[in-house]
Amino acid sequence: xxxxxxxxCLTLCICLFSNCVNSSSQKTPAITEGDSLNVGKNTxxxxxxxxxxxxxxxxYLDYLKGKKIGxxxxxxxxxxxxxxxxxxxxxxxxxxxxxxxxxxxxxxASNGDKVSDSVDPKTGIPAISLxxxxxxxxxxxxxxxxxxxxxxxxxxxxxxxxxxxLGHVMEACxxxxxxxxxxxxxxxxxxLVDGPILEDHLRSGIGMYKIPVSHGLTIAEFAQMINGExxxxxxxxxxxxxxxxxxxxxxxxxxxxxxxxxxxxxxQSVMLYPHICMFEGTIISQGRGTYMPFxxxxxxxxxxxxxxxxxxxxxxxMSESPLHINQECYGLDLRKYDIAKLEKAxxxxxxxxxxxxxxxxxxxxxxxxxxxxxxxxxxKLAGTENLKKQIIAGVSEEEIRKSWxxxxxxxxxxxxxxxxxx
Length: 422
Known about the structure:
- The chain is α/β, with parallel strands linked by helices and 422 residues long.
- Helices cover 28% and strands 13% of the residues.
- It has 13 helices and 14 strands.
- The strands form four sheets. The chain has a seven-stranded mixed beta sheet, with helices on both faces. It has a three-stranded antiparallel beta sheet with strand order 12-14-13, with no helix packed on it. It has a two-stranded antiparallel ribbon with strand order 1-2.
- Helix 5 (162-176) links the parallel strand 9 (147-151) and strand 10 (179-183).
- Helix 5 crosses helix 6.
- The radius of gyration is 22 Å and the shape is globular.
């Protein structure tokens, strides 16, 4: 009787999740374009909206049966509206270890904060942080699992660290001959392939791979590129199994249902991120310390140059010590900027950073990271030393873009080999 009850319970769970998957093609909970994430509202999506790999439970549930599962997830890893770990445990899947990237398993840590290992209070499963001293699962940890699942929402930019975490975990899988199951998700910036190619000597935690600023790939496509280009140590190969996104190509609009990190808290910020993140290597605030990060730009010394003003504050869980804290910053308000213009252009917007450099009165300090611990290394963000020099020298945008070749063109050709979606 016990086994029959278990089977009935499992069947019921599968039916519930099947309904959830079917409904996900009708409605997608949306990130609003206001100051913060509005979790409570839904927007009606087109009849054939993208259906994530995770939402296609029937495509992989049987494959997980009888296996000890490790899973790399964060707050974006959901089935319907439920965290995937909770969902899989409810379906009888033997999840034995959770791994979390930057911002942690629940996505609550601030930018750059180290996250400690813990035990998930809801499921009692060990949660291992891969952001800090430990970059990849240890061989001992890998010995305790049969299959690794990767399910994290990416936003398509080289300096967004989840692709680095992907590479590290692929390395751990390859070393221990364990398979990785990728539950793929759309890239909201999948239409954008642009920027200088990362130079070898500028590799860092915000840029590991020789790719442009905006790579135009989903996580699964990127994983195939890592394998295909031999980017793992000693050209090791990670065995991959991929559950593709349904109803998706690289031009398909996709509104993220959950904010991907504390400072990407609106759809507008997600779409502007590839264009604005390089400002982190300048004296210009990107809105950290407000509820509008990556949609506004400004600095105190731009008073009189721009009318829009904001004042960064300490915000726990987002930015405790932001650049220009408690100072009025003058600059650009891009919260209502028409993203369709960026999609139509298909290029990174360089005008914003070039214009603000021209407007800044103390040009010698525009890129000087010694002024604040909150300023990053512009060259590492750009992936090249040339861009900073070109902006300072007043080189035209056309000439700057020419300097990205032939690297960018070669990347676009290489990218074609790994595309799963048109």
